[in-house]
Design brief:
Layout lengths: L2 E4 L1 E4 L2 E8 L17 H24 L7 H14 L2 H14 L3 H17 L4 H4 L2 H16 L14 E5 L4 H8 L3 E6 L7 H9 L3 E3 L4 H4 L5 E5 L4 E4 L3 H21 L16 E6 L2 H9 L5 E4 L14 H14 L4 E4 L28 H7 L1 H14 L5 E5 L5 H20 L10 E5 L2 H5 L1 H4 L6 E3 L1 H9 L17 H17 L3 E3 L10 H7 L3 E4 L4 H9 L3 H13 L3 H10 L3
Parallel strand pairs: 3-4, 4-5, 5-6, 9-10, 9-16, 10-11, 11-12, 12-13, 13-14, 14-15, 15-16
Antiparallel strand pairs: 1-8, 2-6, 3-7, 7-8
Helix pairs in contact: 1-2, 1-3, 1-6, 2-6, 3-4, 4-6, 11-12, 12-14, 13-14, 14-15, 20-22, 22-23
Length: 575
């Protein structure tokens, strides 16, 4: 008898294969007191385990094939850097020496404290970086406990669907070389490591499928639909034939996308759209360009500030920005610091007690304006890097005109300072607002008179509008990009930008999701920024579209007062 299960589709594609479970087992972490004479021996044992964990990751890194997407290597490099991080090493050693406890218990305390900090973060993307801490500490713990993670041993080349509670980046690299057909995890969501890496490798995946290891039998055949988030266990022949046909159609479609490289994203009725990439590392710029991205619509800068007790100085930031700007052929939109006051980004000095709701607290542009020296250092580095390419500066979490004008005045002041010091600065550096707060979308007509551009951050805009946290497994089912209130705010922002004569881009996940491309074209969007792997598919959607007809249809959708009718008409756009 077939079993139908549903989770969160995080990487599109169809997989038909047999189940292989990852039997990791929860780590049983002992805790016991040490005699004074045993303390330094325990310190040596921890340092040795940390060294072995580094060796393991280096071994995995050496196995990464050439041509693998840059972010695959980046995840391993991030874990290697964290293994060198003094916040892990020093804190754990202090617990051993001060509390006279064993290394495993000391590391658990360190891990739990660091994860608590990440879980307080307001940015959903950054909050999922708690996984890095968990994976790195788990690797050291497994060495200490002599409990290795057992990946499926595949002597043959038969593809399989891996079912696990969670999967580390190192596991994914090894499994990808063992003909894994798809991933299923019981935890995680669209921003989890599994999701990001599966999308980069083109491997179908479902996250958040609770009790999957209990409900699925080892070796049983399954069909996985990574777009819909559905898994069918023990399928009958009718279901198998249906999904095999769907697999063949998708493979043919993907093969056709390659031919679009080098072609402009022009619709059937002549509208020219701009396709940009969201990137994090200089290596990603090459991948983005190879996939036809015309520039970078979002470059995050928070990683310079994280996992450290001191602030990155101007020279360190300048070097980082100069490298990324030099690596990008087209324009690059760099988002200024988007961390909150609950993070220790100022040499350990606390701004006060952690707020009950960091997402509504002192974060992003609010923090930068309250801590002007923090903002000034970053702006100096950004402006100095402008001589190496075309930079746009994007201010996150703008909620009113006063914030934008105050930030822009600070940028102008820094410009005059640098010119006076003899630095070469680009003549034109557009400064824009990230529209991710409902108040900013509602105030868009006013903001458009002062901003050089808008970029819609749909991830936060949806969360703030609907008052839900999409990383929270209890409520993420309410995350709805097609909610009428969300569509009205997007429409208002695009229209305000058009009337104000400024470009409007979208850098949230909606921009890279082909399910929404026709709707966004109908709303008037012409600049899409997305994961590099999505560029060609979005280009295909645009080239097949009649934008004039879509805009007429979408106006009728926005005017609809019946929710079901509205959703039916949106679905019909792709028919």
């Amino acid at each position: 008898m077939s079993l139908w299960l549903s989770g969160i589709g995080v990487s599109r594609g169809i997989a038909i294969a047999r189940v292989q479970k990852l039997h990791a087992g929860d780590l049983d972490i002992p805790e016991h007191s040490l005699e004074p004479d045993d303390i330094e021996g325990e310190v040596v044992r921890f340092i040795g385990a940390q060294r072995r964990a580094r060796e393991q990751l280096h071994e995995v890194r050496e196995k990464i094939p050439s041509g693998t997407p840059g972010e695959i290597t980046a995840f391993i490099d991030t874990h290697l850097l964290m293994l060198e991080d003094r916040s892990i090493t020093d804190t754990t050693l202090a617990h051993i020496r001060n509390q006279h406890i064993n290394a495993e218990a000391a590391l658990r305390q360190t891990r739990d404290a660091l994860i608590a900090v990440f879980e307080q973060m307001d940015d959903a993307y950054l909050r999922t970086r708690r996984d890095d801490v968990d994976h790195v500490c788990a690797r050291i713990l497994r060495v200490l406990l002599r409990s290795e993670r057992q990946l499926p041993a595949k002597a043959d080349n038969e593809p399989f669907v891996l079912v696990a509670d969670d999967i580390t980046p190192a596991d994914i690299i090894i499994l990808a070389q063992q003909h894994v057909a798809a991933f299923v995890t019981e935890y995680g969501g669209p921003l989890s490591h599994t999701a990001i890496l599966a999308r980069s490798l083109g491997i179908p995946a479902i996250a958040g499928l609770r009790d999957a290891r209990r409900l699925l039998r080892e070796g049983e055949p399954v069909i996985l639909d990574g777009e819909a988030g559905h898994l069918l266990a023990a399928p009958d022949e009718i279901a198998l034939e249906f999904y095999r046909a769907k697999q063949r159609a998708q493979a043919q479609y993907r093969a056709g996308l390659v031919r679009l490289k080098g072609r402009d994203a022009v619709s059937r009725d002549g509208l020219r759209a701009k396709l940009l990439a969201n990137i994090e590392l200089p290596e990603d710029a090459k991948v983005a360009e190879e996939n036809g991205a015309e520039g970078v619509g979002l470059y995050r800068t928070e990683f310079l500030y994280m996992n450290r007790k001191d602030l990155p100085d101007e020279e360190e930031q300048f070097d980082a920005y100069a490298r990324i700007v030099s690596a990008v052929a087209g324009p690059i939109t760099i988002r200024t610091l988007d961390l909150g006051a609950d993070k220790q980004v100022d040499s350990g000095r606390s701004h006060g007690p952690t707020p009950n709701n960091p997402a509504l607290g002192l974060r992003a542009i609010r923090l930068c304006l309250k801590e002007p020296e923090l903002f000034r250092t970053q702006v100096r580095a950004l402006l100095r890097a402008s001589k190496y390419g075309r930079i746009n500066i994007m201010l996150p979490m703008i909620s009113n005109l006063q914030e934008f004008r105050q930030a822009r005045a600070a940028i102008d002041t820094v410009r005059h300072e640098l010119i006076g010091e003899g630095h070469e600065i680009a003549d034109q550096i557009p400064v824009g607002a990230m529209i991710e707060v409902p108040a900013a979308a509602l105030a868009a007509p006013m903001l458009a008179r002062h901003c050089d551009f808008f970029s819609i951050g749909t991830n936060d805009l949806i969360q703030y509008t609907l008052a839900i946290d999409r990383v929270d497994d209890e409520v993420n089912y309410l995350y709805d990009p097609l909610h009428p209130a969300v569509l009205q705010l997007i429409s208002r922002t695009i229209e305000s930008g058009s009337r104000g004569g400024i470009p409007v881009a979208m850098c949230g996940e909606m921009a890279g999701d082909p399910r929404y491309t026709r709707l966004l074209l109908g709303l008037g969007l012409t600049e899409f920024s997305m994961h590099p792997a999505s560029v060609l598919e979005i280009k295909r959607m645009i080239m097949d579209a009649d934008v004039g007809a879509l805009r007429h249809a979408v106006q009728g959708i926005l005017a609809s007062t019946d929710l079901q009718e509205m959703r039916d008409r949106i679905a019909a756009l792709d028919a």
